[in-house]
Amino acid sequence: MNTLALILAGGRGSRLDLLSEKRVKPAVPFAGKYRIIDFTLSNCSNSGIYDIAILTQYLPLSLNEHIGVGKPWDLDRRDTRLSLLQPYKEWYSGTADAVLQNIEYVKRSKAEHVLILSGDHVYKMDYRKMLAHHKKHDADLTIAVQPVPIEEASRYGILSADEDTMITKFAEKPEKPESNLASMGIYVFNKAVLLDAIQRLDAPDLDFGKHVIPYLLKTHKVYAHVFKDYWKDVGTYDAYLEANLELTATVDQVPLDMYDRSWRIHTRSEEMPSVKVGSKALIHQALISNGCIVAGEVKRSVLSPGVVIHPGASVINSVILNDSEVLPGAIVENTIIDKNVTIGYKAKVGCGDDYTPNKEKPSLLQSGINVIAKGVSIPDGTTVERNCRITSTATFKEKIIKSGSTL
């Protein structure tokens, strides 16, 4: 397939706060053993697209180590090309500016089409269908769109299209949306059109939604490709926890089938032993990754590789990342725990009826979720109530951490 895929993977993901403190958002672990970017990379591989450049920027080390030479996605063959591109002049100031700064790379490609993708969305999509739609209509630009509830439409780039899917209007996050067709941030460009547009437009924060799409709508053929399957931006604590926990649902209710052998999600897996379940363990609706040891209770939760749940411990509605440990008698509920965290003996995390929003970042934590940063040790017998941020530099002077606190 004569297509170059450019994956935008440089955003910090500031709404993920502590989870993106030491890694870029696409490198954040998801669904146990995976990283968020695995979904976009797997979509490319499964769609037969093997000419891929990943545009990195913020804290790229974790992402670069994860991707390596691309072997898990079959991108290390002689007829494939995987490149990691970093900004070399100045920080990317917009989505289209990231492409503009790497314009020589795009020019050298022999591809006829350029597929622009985001590295921080969770979905399964066959890009061949979108490319076929693009070619059928002889389009200059095709935008993947998804119908969203009209009350949420103001959060997205919203477009209107005629019966033939030609786009007639586009508005970036309109206050009063005229349509519910939301841009997914996935674009197919004719390469010549893309190169001409980003060179012609003069904007310090050159962006596809703000600048390129409105410009091309006036002079070029722009079409919509409607995608109605599962697609989620897990860019907030609430969305991240909800999306993970949705995957623990029963087979007939799970929104994203991770067990479809015809469309595998590939990842770089650690060599770890099989899951071990103790004689007194209780497990209900959970995703448990390789290397985990469960001797306590796990309910509607996701455990990444190497997590240990000791006897008498209870984990409910939570996501626990690699190599963390919940000691005997501890209770964890409605909490996101980063890597290498220890929850002390008989500690309680996520309890009480006080839902005071986090005082430092109320917009991020107000639904009762706690977040614990990488490497933290919660002391024995400590109680952490709700909407708390426990940072990597936290010091514990009190046994009760009140709701809304940041340490």
List descriptors.
407 residues, alpha/beta, Spore Coat Polysaccharide Biosynthesis Protein SpsA, Chain A, UDP N-Acetylglucosamine Acyltransferase, domain 1, 11-stranded parallel β-sheet
Describe the structure.
With 407 residues, the protein is of the alpha/beta class. It has 2 domains: 3-239, Spore Coat Polysaccharide Biosynthesis Protein SpsA, Chain A, CATH 3.90.550; 271-407, Hexapeptide repeat proteins (UDP N-Acetylglucosamine Acyltransferase, domain 1). The chain is 17% helix and 28% strand. The chain has helices at residues 37-46, 61-67, 95-100, 103-108, 127-136, 191-200, 208-219, 237-246; strands spanning 3-8, 29-30, 34-35, 51-55, 81-85, 113-118, 121-123, 141-147, 157-161, 167-172, 181-190, 222-226, 231-233, 276-277, 282-288, 293-294, 297-303, 308-309, 314-316, 319-320, 325-326, 331-333, 335-337, 342-343, 348-349, 370-372, 377-378, 383-384, 389-390, 400-401. Strand 9 (157-161) and strand 10 form a beta hairpin. The longest helix is centred in the middle third of the chain and has 12 residues, at 208-219. The mean pLDDT is 92.
End-to-end separation in angstroms reads 51 Å
What would CATH call the architecture of the largest domain?
A: Alpha-Beta Complex
Overall pLDDT confidence: 92
**Percent strand:** 25-35%
Number of domains: 2
Radius of gyration: 22 Å
Largest beta sheet, briefly? 11 strands, parallel
Helix coverage percent of residues?
10-25%
CATH homologous group name of the largest domain: Spore Coat Polysaccharide Biosynthesis Protein SpsA, Chain A
Total E-strand runs = 30
And the CATH topology of the largest domain? Answer: Spore Coat Polysaccharide Biosynthesis Protein SpsA, Chain A
Total helical segments: 8
Label the structural class: alpha/beta
Shape: globular
Oligomer: single chain
Classified by CATH, the class of the largest domain is Alpha Beta
Low-confidence stretches: none
